[in-house]
Specification:
With 382 residues, the chain is an alpha/beta fold. Helices cover 43% and strands 10% of the residues. Bound molecules: coproporphyrinogen III.
């Protein structure tokens, strides 16, 4: 067994063996992932049969919950994230209310870039906004390496608080290099990502340097979250689906692969998510993901073919359907459950985040409904 050093240095060429045959990584014996090893989420993420289907919702924390709005107050979400007691409570709220099988850390994908001083904020109702977007090599100086204990001690304190309280796995996360780069380059949320695509093709050397920097930041951030108590990680490449498979392969995949490689030794599941990624699912699995998120555009059976064996799937209810009333939600959920449970390794989720206008009672019913479903594979496979 590797030692339990608190070091953030990962062996770059970590062996490419399945990471969670045993939890033999550098995690201490009292790490929550050991106690929670037989939880539904962790079993499904290892592609083991489960007694019930695990369920959680992307963006379950915050958004539509009245108790979140009451606690959050006005101002930037970064202020709420900076207060560990508040961030831990917001993380717990959906676990309490819905009874979901995983908690997702209340933070944001732009937190590390903000913490190292790039100059980025999250404007309510808009999203991440950058005062001076990244345009040239000199702007890379505003993006130094992340020292998690120095730059994001508040995030680590939140994780520590949660590790002591949760009886379901905590999913830590980071923004993927491409999706974070898209915000730094565009300066604000964008539909076409025109500046980002032009950048990668006109100055590939600077693009790859930027992606390397962002990959290192994502690794440092997620390693630190796991070392202090997260039991899984998810890399959000929300906007990767805007790219052609060829551009994804040339400009993005090598960097996301490095992120996954440098987390392998921790022995916790590594999930990979994006929207509109139907044509990228094979690559998103191949870069080293243990779990791949699927949106509603791709049936789970087809997704399973694309990611190949040994990779768990997560998804894929269209979040908009949650606004259409319970009969619609139930019918869609039943179809998805039947497709998803065709093989072990399935986690129910939405195909993207909870919409702010969602009635929490729908997600409550949906959680119960998923839990009542009998997965066929539970008895068929061993
Ligand atoms: O369950 C959770 O919500 C966990 C915490 C979480 C947030 N952001 C908090 C948040 C997570 C996992 C994220 C990830 C994130 N942030 C992504 C990837 C996931 C995805 O949905 O694709 C992205 C692209 C961002 C960037 C970002 N932050 C956007 C686009 C927005 C929306 C702006 C808006 O107001 O509509 C944010 C703000 C944000 N981050 C909110 C929350 C709860 C909502 C606004 C608020 O309360 O201030």
């Amino acid at each position: 067994m590797a030692d339990t050093a608190e070091s953030f240095d990962a062996p770059v060429d970590a062996p490419a063996q399945p990471p969670h045959d045993s939890l033999a990584g550098p995690l201490p014996a009292d790490h929550p992932s050991r106690r929670l090893s037989d939880s539904l989420y962790l079993q499904a993420a290892r592609c083991e049969p489960t007694e019930r289907v695990p369920v959680w919702f992307q963006r379950q924390a915050g958004r539509s919950l009245p108790e979140y709005r009451a606690l959050r107050g006005p101002g930037s979400i970064l202020d709420a994230i900076a207060d560990p007691a508040t961030a831990a409570e917001i993380t717990l709220q959906p676990v309490r209310r819905y009874g979901v099988d995983a908690a997702v850390l209340f933070s944001d994908i732009v937190v590390p870039a903000a913490a190292v001083g790039f100059g980025i904020d999250v404007v309510p109702g808009v999203g991440p906004v950058v005062a001076e977007p990244l345009r040239s090599r000199i702007d890379l100086d505003r993006l130094p390496e992340l020292d998690p204990e120095a730059h994001t001690s508040h995030v680590l304190e939140t994780v520590r608080l949660l590790a002591a309280k949760l009886d379901v796995p905590l999913i830590g996360f980071a923004g993927a290099p491409f999706t974070v780069a898209s915000y730094l380059v565009e300066g604000r949320p964008s539909r076409q990502h025109a500046l980002t695509k032009a950048f990668m093709h006109t100055d590939p050397a600077l693009w790859h340097d930027l992606m390397e920097r962002l990959a290192s930041i994502a690794v440092a951030s997620m390693r630190s979250q796991v070392l202090v108590g997260a039991s899984a990680v998810q890399l959000f490449d929300s906007w990767a689906g805007t790219l052609s498979p060829a551009d994804y392969a040339a400009f993005v995949a090598p960097h996301s692969k490095r992120v996954f490689d440098e987390l392998a030794d921790l022995g916790v599941p590594r999930a990979h998510f994006g929207v509109g990624t139907g044509e990228l699912l094979d690559q998103m699995a191949q870069v080293g993901a243990d779990v791949v998120g699927v949106d509603w555009r791709v049936p789970l059976g087809a997704a399973r073919q694309r990611v190949g064996p040994g990779v768990a799937l997560q998804g894929n209810l269209d979040p908009v359907l949650c606004l259409a009333g319970w009969p619609t939600v139930r019918a869609a959920a039943d179809r998805i459950l039947a497709e998803g449970t065709g093989a072990p390794g399935y986690i129910f989720n939405l195909g993207h985040g909870v919409l702010p206008e969602t009635d929490p009672s729908v997600l409550e019913r949906l959680t119960d409904h998923v839990h009542a479903y009998q997965p066929a594979h539970a008895s068929q496979h061993e």
